[in-house]
Amino acid sequence: MLKGKKTLVRSIILGLLVVILSVIVSKQLSNPTKKQPPKISFRIKTVSVKPLELGVNTFSVEASGRLRAYRRFDVFAEVNGVLQNESYREGTSFNSGEVLVKMNDEELAVQLKAQKSSLLGLISQALPDIQIDYKEEVDNWKNFASALSPNTKLPVLPNSNNPKLKQFLASRNILNSYYSIQAQEVRLSKYNIITPFSGILSEALIEPGALVRAGQKIGTFVQPGVYELETSVTPEELVYLKKTSKIQLYTDAGEVVWGTISRINEVVEGSTQLVSVYLSISDKRVREGQFLRTRINGASINNSFLISRDMINEDGTIFIVRNSDSTLVKKPVKLYSVQGEMALISGVEDGDLIPLNNISGAFESMKVIPSIIEK
User: Do both 291 and 329 map to the same domain?
Assistant: First the structure.
């Protein structure tokens, strides 16, 4: 009996121990494991900076374009004919008033001679009636008949205020014949194209002996020495440009050519939203069609500073280092122009500490160690 009691007590104690262990294990499993906070490095970056020295900088716009001769014209034929002059070739020089284009006009010239002879006959038939009915006009018409020749230009028609005489001349077909011949003389003059100024035939689209058709472009004639270059700027940049401003132009070989702003268009081009600026260049070293780069010098900007363009943030700010606590501060700036890798800005203050290079992962209030670099 005593032995049975001991066995019962032992079973109770074991059962209590199992219950206690189960409670402890359950509590351990129910508590979430606490994560250790990530280790963060608070190492402060050393940043090279320099104090800003504001000054007066000249605003400039860089652009490019091709030269066009200031005095030039495209040569078009107004009549049909065969090109006769052998000098019509690219690169040929012509003086002012010289025949640039000469086409075969023999057929029309012969027709004109016939019409003038016919007009002379009509006047000769009318002279007896004029002498009887319009004595005060007869001398003028005799002089006109004497000057009228098939081989010379049509003389000026005698001026008369007598309406009856005009009716008489019209009835004899004299006036109609005169004006018809005058129109044919104008047409005959179009077989020869005269140069309005001295220059060079820069483009010849036909060769001597070729048939020319009315309305056909046959070449381009230019005056070398004075050129014009058209370039485009934004309306914002236009504020700082003005007529007669001196400009620099650069050839592909690096030669510097000077010019001036001659004209500024008042209209913004719809598709590009740019304004055309025309530059006048007078230099014997350049030629029609040559490609040039330009730098247009505009207004001077006070309290401005040139900075590397990649230092400007997308929101139009730059980082400066605050002197009081050596932290980065964003400062809004005004951008005037981009000149190559540099940008002209204002909005900063004299003495502000500006980083010399971009700071990786920079953000506002970031702590840095400024290392001041003097000039």
Answer: no
